[in-house]
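Exercise: predict the fold of this chain.
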Amino acid sequence: MYLKNIFLHLKLITYHRWLVFKLCLKAGEPWRGFVHDLSKYSPTEFFESIKYYTGTHSPITEAKKDKGYSIAWLHHKGRNKHHSEYWVDDNTPDKTPVIPYKYVVEMICDKIAAGMAYKKKDFTYEYELNYWNREKEILQINEKTKEFITEVFSEIIENGLNKTLNKTNLKKLYKKYCE
């Protein structure tokens, strides 16, 4: 089972990265897509993830259920600026700053790609918006950034991925909510 999980997890994270890369290309952030989640191949993240691999959701969730924490998550969120948790600093006046444009765009692409990778044929943009609406209530994330992400997911449902996830539209929305 362990050997099988190595290959299945490797396939899943590589597929996820490919989806993020394609979405980041659409959004005008190819470099963010290219370097996305490289830390998942590090021993710290990879070995815990294969131990808790299910194929239907993040192994991090399973590690947290089992141990109460995930060493892979602690490693991952500290190295990947597309996670809101990277930006939280309890020792500053503004504990949740507005996340810079390129990282919040990568975050959006990451969330869509994760939904696609895990939900497969059952994935819908409505699912992603509903997931985000639940998730944003528990995340420590700046309200302006929350509003921007919510608007992008809503527009994708209304106008489609290609019309919404392009550099001109995303920059316009980011300016509206975050600048």
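Check your answer against the key: Residues 2-178 form one domain.
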